[in-house]
Design goal:
The structure holds 2 protein chains of 2 kinds. By secondary structure, chain A is mostly helical. Chain A contains 12 helices and no strands. The relative contact order of chain A is 0.15. Chain B is α/β, with parallel strands linked by helices. Chain B has one domain: P-loop containing nucleotide triphosphate hydrolases (Rossmann fold). Chain B has 9 helices and 12 strands. In chain B, a hairpin with a 2-residue loop joins strand 11 and strand 12. In chain B, helix 3 runs parallel beside helix 5, helix 4 crosses helix 5 and helix 5 runs parallel beside helix 6. Chain B is globular. The two termini of chain B are about 25 Å apart. The relative contact order of chain B is 0.14. Classes of the chains: A mainly alpha, B alpha/beta. At the A-B interface, helix 9 and helix 10 of A face helix 3 and helix 5 of B.
């Protein structure tokens, strides 16, 4: 009875969606806010070419270090470039780096982690390599890589990804180690499940929830590290407006034009915060035992 | 033994052992061995239920898992319908799993929490490509009905079922491929008493319909008495007595079996019988005592008991016991 009632509801479309959203809001208000802020920031960045009132590269000597106002929402920097436009464009770099680092490190980490969790002999070798990677300070590795290769966004992504991989590997390995001892894995083997399916259907889905949460944290920290690197002058090339670059340049004028730092910093903080807030809720939503009534 | 082609028993276990090595400490080379299953032999006839009882830690479950090849045997032979499966590789074993299935004790941990009920029951069918998707779907619906679940519950996740329903899912999964042997590893001991009866009766019905042989592992004598044709009593990794149900309950021969039966509560307050209280604790299966495993707790032990291990000797056609004092 209730079953068919629920099905009927979910087929009736919009009202059900709204009811679902309301339930979500009651359960995970912070994650919804996080998701909303993140989506807004994404839309703003993606639509930067259309939304930005000025060319982010155009210098205007007359309008140097203007205060935020009607013409320049966030003011201008020392070269008279519009900070609002630059911040919007900077968001694209941050998002791109956050997403690609999270994606790359989770994917590579997942593969290595499952291998290490499942095979004892691979485990011994792989985990020692991971220990070695973990011992290298991320920022130093990035600086070394940047000085070896031509600065570019790709190198930044690689430089941030490498130190993140061991974290993912450790997480995945730990989950695989605990999942493979579960009785339902034994049951799956006893019903003739072959190794690929065992990995894909039984072990992988159980690693996914913590992994996605971890991925959000990695995305947040990648956005931050990119800005550190840019701030230190070893990240995104200085001509590209990333948040870190804008803050680094603004630092010189912080006493006379504090908005140079404040505006991009607020965006940076908002993005990191929203990703983290979203990640917390995702963990709960991804567990079928906890999401019973929110379907 | 004769020339005629006799159908081999469903399951034939000969001298099966599973010893675990304990890692020695840094300072000694002494290897400690855990004799979880030690030299166990029995046969399971077609359509028969063999109950396997013993207290916790006596190796019942390890025996079950060793037969299923989820645990590698140390020595001995396992024959499934006449075919030796002891040395098959994990790959080769997969095909044989169609005839040898298992129901686990804990219905909460034996179902993947992230899979829907229909997917869990249908997984064996998927593994062996049994029929088209539609045929599999039909089979799943049939199995749900057969074990007393509603086919429309297929979309639910395991946590949405009660303990008894979950165990029915476990039974449906074991049944899916139409196996000839099902090993029940304490399939009802995690359930409420009223639900236990339902699940056991279901298992007995299924046996009548599909001629399945059960190796039914349990620690509850009343449950075993209800379902089994023959009963094996296990103590510290060895079978000490093996008899038909009636024989075992009416004429228990081994002192351990006698003590075990005497411990069963009696329903009538005035109907008293002599309690046999065993002294001491169960020995550790790590380097267990020489001779009869039971000798230092046995009320009748004599000198030979501590020196020689009594073999499982047949007393009659349907009764075998491992004790020096029973002749």
């Amino acid at each position: 009875m209730t079953q068919s009632l629920q099905q009927g509801l979910s087929h009736s479309g919009l009202s059900a969606t709204r009811a679902g959203l309301r339930r979500l809001w009651r359960r995970y208000p912070l994650s919804l806010i996080g998701g909303f802020v993140l989506i807004s920031l994404t839309v703003l960045s993606v639509l930067a070419p259309w939304l930005a009132p000025f060319d982010p590269f155009e210098m205007n000597v007359v309008d140097r270090l203007r205060e935020p106002g009607e013409e320049y929402f966030f003011g201008t920097d020392a070269y008279g470039r519009d900070l609002f436009s630059r911040t919007l464009y900077g968001g694209r770099i941050s998002l791109l780096i956050g997403l690609s680092v999270a994606g790359l490190s989770t994917l590579i980490g997942l593969l290595i982690g499952i291998l290490a969790g499942y095979s004892r002999s691979a485990d011994a070798v792989l985990m020692r390599i991971m220990d070695g990677l973990m011992a290298i300070p991320g920022i130093l590795l990035a600086i070394a890589l940047m000085s070896l290769a031509r600065p570019g966004i790709g190198v930044v992504v690689v430089a941030i990804t490498i130190p993140e991989i061991p974290r993912v590997v450790r997480l995945v390995r730990a989950v695989v180690l605990s999942v493979r001892e579960q009785v339902y894995i034994q049951a799956a083997i006893a019903t003739g499940t072959r190794l690929p399916r065992l990995m894909l259907k039984h072990i992988l889905p159980n690693t996914l929830a913590p992994l996605i949460v971890q991925a959000t944290y990695i995305a947040a920290s990648a956005v931050l590290i990119e800005s550190y690197l840019s701030f230190l002058g070893v990240g995104t090339p200085p001509e590209v407006p990333s948040w870190g670059n804008i803050i680094a340049e603004g630092r010189l004028y912080v006493q006379i034009a504090p908005w140079n730092i404040v505006c991009p910093s607020v965006f940076l903080a908002l993005m990191v915060l929203s990703i983290n807030m979203l990640g917390d809720g995702l963990r709960d939503m991804l567990d079928p035992r906890l999401q019973t009534r929110v379907r | 033994m004769s020339n005629q082609v006799a159908t081999p028993p469903a399951l034939d276990v000969v001298n099966l052992s599973k010893h675990y090595e304990l890692a020695g400490s840094w300072f000694s080379n002494k290897q400690a061995l855990v004799y979880a299953v030690d030299d166990v032999s029995f046969t399971l006839g077609r359509g028969e239920t063999l109950g396997l009882v013993g207290e916790s830690g006596c190796g019942k479950s390890t025996l079950g898992r060793t037969i299923l090849r989820l645990v590698e045997p140390t020595s001995g032979t396992i024959r499934l319908e006449g075919e030796d499966i002891t040395a098959l590789s994990a790959q080769e074993m997969i095909a044989r799993r169609q005839r040898l299935q298992v129901i686990f004790q804990d219905p909460y941990s034996s179902l993947n929490p992230r899979m829907r009920a229909g997917e869990i029951v249908g997984e064996p069918l998927t593994n062996f490509n049994r029929g088209t998707a539609a045929e599999q779907d039909e089979r799943i619906a049939f199995l749900f009905k057969r074990v007393g679940l509603r086919p429309d519950q297929r979309q639910n996740f395991p946590h949405e079922f009660s303990g008894g329903q979950r165990q029915r899912l476990g039974i449906a999964r074991a049944l899916a491929l139409g196996p000839s042997v099902i090993i029940g590893d304490e399939p009802v001991s995690a359930l409420d008493v009223s639900v236990q009866a339902q699940v056991i009766n279901l298992m007995m019905d299924l046996q009548d319909d599909y001629a399945i042989s059960y190796l039914f592992i349990a620690h509850d004598l009343s449950v075993v008495r209800h379902i089994s044709h023959r009963i094996a009593v296990m103590y510290l990794g060895q079978i000490v007595e093996l008899a038909t149900r009636q024989e075992l309950f009416e004429r228990p021969q081994h002192p351990y079996t006698q003590a075990l039966l005497a411990a069963v509560p009696i329903s009538h307050p005035r109907d008293r019988r002599k309690r046999i209280t065993l002294k001491g604790d169960v020995e550790s299966p790590i380097n267990p005592p020489a001779g009869c495993r039971f000798h230092n707790r046995c009320p009748h032990a004599v000198a030979v008991c501590s020196q020689e291990r009594p073999p499982l000797r047949p007393l009659s056609q349907d009764h075998a016991v491992a004790c020096h004092l029973v002749v």
